[in-house]
Design goal:
Elements lengths: L12 H12 L1 H4 L3 H9 L2 E5 L4 E3 L7 E14 L8 E6 L4 E2 L13 E14 H10 L4 H22 L4 H18 L10 H8 L3 H13 L3 E3 L5 E3 L8
Antiparallel strand pairs: 1-6, 2-6, 3-4, 3-5, 3-6, 7-8
């Protein structure tokens, strides 16, 4: 789990929070100091425990959510129970809610805390005022949204594979690359149920394929539970 740099002695004050926000969120760098200060002055800090629901799909939302620590799971179709679709995980530095600058102000996913987290909420009205005061910051908004589109296209590419093993193989390669390149929580571990939810398969099918890959010496998990590929995965199962 990531270290919560913003937890602890409240005497550290807003100055510490603001400094760490600039390190975590490139979006805030786009605003000059006075505009950024006015924006952050309207924000509120929150802490949430594992299992708490932050957003429910379809509910009205009035602000951005900026995650400073912990892990939050984004899902859809929660009524489907174990077959709910898992979009992915948000880690420190993630921003949710920018889409409502252009669409109706409702949550498109469920956000559920997976590991205790700390986050800042910023009212959309305050963000719009900041953007009106400094229009050049729209470029930073566009970059954030582009990252979301990139993730969505990758998810669609996975689901577009007609062969279940090919979906799993592509996801494992992606997770392996992230785990090897990451020294923080962004290399979050996925359970076998979560793997299944990411690629639209049953847990039983995923468990069977993972078992075969482990027994064949292709796959292992590190001390944090992240999947690592030991040798090139077979092209067919």
């Amino acid at each position: 789990m990531a270290i919560d740099f913003l937890a602890g002695d409240a005497a550290e004050g807003a100055e510490t929070d603001s400094t760490l926000l600039l390190l975590l969120f490139p979006l805030l760098h786009a605003f000059p100091g006075d505009v950024r200060a006015a924006l952050l002055a309207e924000g509120d800090w929150h802490s949430a425990r594992a299992g708490e629901l932050l957003w429910q799909e379809g509910d009205a939302i009035t602000g951005l959510l900026l995650l400073s620590s912990g892990v939050v799971r984004a899902t859809a179709n929660a009524d489907d129970g174990p077959r709910a679709y898992l979009y992915g995980h948000m880690a420190a530095g993630a921003v949710a809610g920018l889409h409502v600058l252009f669409t109706e102000p409702v949550a498109q996913v469920n956000l559920v805390v997976q590991e205790d987290c700390r986050y800042l909420t910023l009212p959309l009205t305050a963000l719009r005022r900041a953007l009106d005061a400094h229009p050049a910051a729209w470029e930073a908004v566009a970059r954030e949204l582009a990252q979301g589109v990139y993730h969505l296209v990758n998810s669609l590419n996975l689901l577009g594979q007609s062969n279940g093993y090919q979906r799993l193989r592509r996801l494992l390669v992606r997770l392996d690359r992230r785990a090897r390149n990451s020294h923080d929580i962004s290399g979050v571990a996925l359970s076998q149920q979560e793997l299944a939810a990411r690629i639209g398969l049953s847990r039983e099918m995923v468990n069977r394929m993972l078992g075969e890959l482990r027994s064949g010496g292709y796959l292992t998990q590190d001390e944090r539970g992240r999947f690592l590929i030991l040798k090139p995965l077979p092209h067919a199962f």
